[in-house]
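Subgroup meeting minutes
Present: P.N., E.W., G.H.
Scribe: E.W.

1. P.N. recapped why we're keeping a running log of single-chain structure predictions: easier to compare across weeks, and new members can see raw inputs and outputs side by side.
2. G.H. added today's entry (374 aa).
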Amino acid sequence: MKKDTGLRVLYMTQGWSPHDARFLAGMVQLGHQPFYLPLSGRGPAASDLPPGVVRVEGVPRLAPRGFFPWLHALRRTLERLRPDLIHAGPLPWGPLGPALLGWRPLVSISWGSDVLWHAQRKPWLRLLIGWVLARSTLVLADCRAVAERLHAWGVPWSRVVVFPWGTDLARFSPGPSQVRGRLGLPQDAFLWVHVRTWSRFYGLPTALEGFRRALRRVPNLRLLLVGDGPLAPWVRRYLARHGLEATVFLVGRVPEAALPDYLRAGDAYVSVSRSDGSSVSLMQALAVGLPAVVSDIPGNREWVTPGMEGFLVPVEDPDALAEAMVRMARLPRAALKRMRAAARRRAEVQARWPEHLRRLDGAYRMAVEWEGFH
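Output recorded in log:
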């Protein structure tokens, strides 16, 4: 196969997110022909996918009761499409079907918490992941912590490619924002931005309680919650119970194109999730120059050095979070400026999407060459 020959890539994923859109658009940019297959059966219509991406029809939603009909439909689809390579995740469900069918090359991808969190708490899930990994040509890991966990489970280093997902450093860059004016924030407000899903897994109760305790000591703190999630009714009750409606701003989901403006409005970023690989939200915040207070977990330690780009706090510890928020808000202006510059530098060094995209292309080529298909 010539170096510049594009591949027919079947991309199997849980559903649809901005990350999926970026992967698929990147494949087209690399000259490949991607086919999109959501395991959930949901996702955008073919006309709403990035240009050049083909949605796969005829495969039902993956569900326990309908697993064997789903597997049969997947077999027929693979025989019809004849992809050069399958890129599937998260573990284990994304690549499970191709692994059972013995279809290769199979490039499995960890989405971070599938390996770092869920598999650690469910032994049967870890066994299933191990079975899938043994039948994968290559495994993509979004951070070193995931790669080290995979290696500890017996995956040779030669079959692991560390692939941080990166971000668009041109779109996510420092600059002015219109959001603070629309919110009517006081001139001296120190604004924290949270853009994660509103769930316990992503630590929203801890984030709100930490903010409430920090607010007692620094009255000019404000919190911007972008997005929504299963805890939305609880969030509104919590704000009403503690009288926080004037200090916590709920803006709901915002279009991906508008997200840089909301991040630029902030003075700092906060996320205290229980688990993360290389968090794209954190990369985006660092890229716009926001120092970050994040949970002290392996994935985050690869992006935030305490005192440089922000601070690390224990998981589910609102007192420690409040202390870090107060400390950040009380930094002298010059120190905060240095931290903002360090955040942007970290993103420029580690989150360059075009470079990581070339690494993805290299992984594809390696997998195909190993299987000897071309």
